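## retry 2 of 3
previous attempt timed out at serialization; input unchanged, resubmitting
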Amino acid sequence: MQSVLLVSDREENTVFFTEILNAVSLKQIIVVKSVGAAQKLLSERSFDLVLVNAPLPDESGESFARYIAAKGISQVILAVDSGQFDAVSAVCGADGVLTISSPVDKATLRTALALAKSAQNRIRHMQAENTQLKQRIEDIRLINRAKYILISCLNMSEQDAHKYIERQAMDTRSTRRAVAEGILRTYEN
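## retry succeeded, writing output
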């Protein structure tokens, strides 16, 4: 994690959170005092972590934290009063919000930060894998369209069209996708 948006309107808590964030090598910290300011900032840029110190002047902070977590924009840690912790944790935890009890001690915050970092790494890995799978699906669709054109225009069988694309890819030292794109350019225009 690199960038942090800290949403807190209480100066003493802001100082405490900033000190801990700096201690764990999170240096890009932006502090805002309301959900409105945080939403405006999030519309302009993204953050790796959003730390919400509830309650806030314009909202309790719970629905904002749940919204960010549901969107997958950032990892979210929500600090709530210890009297509300169980109820808020049950609701927000289902949406992927890490909820911690306030007043927060250093060990709890460090643990929450480590969990958030671990979860973020896992999500990034899954997003990269998802992107690769989407690319493979798109490649298969493109290759199948090229096969269909070879079948309909050159009266090839499906097996012959498949072999033709693979042979062209090997002979030209390019990908099957590149060969398929060439076939589509040639026959679809």
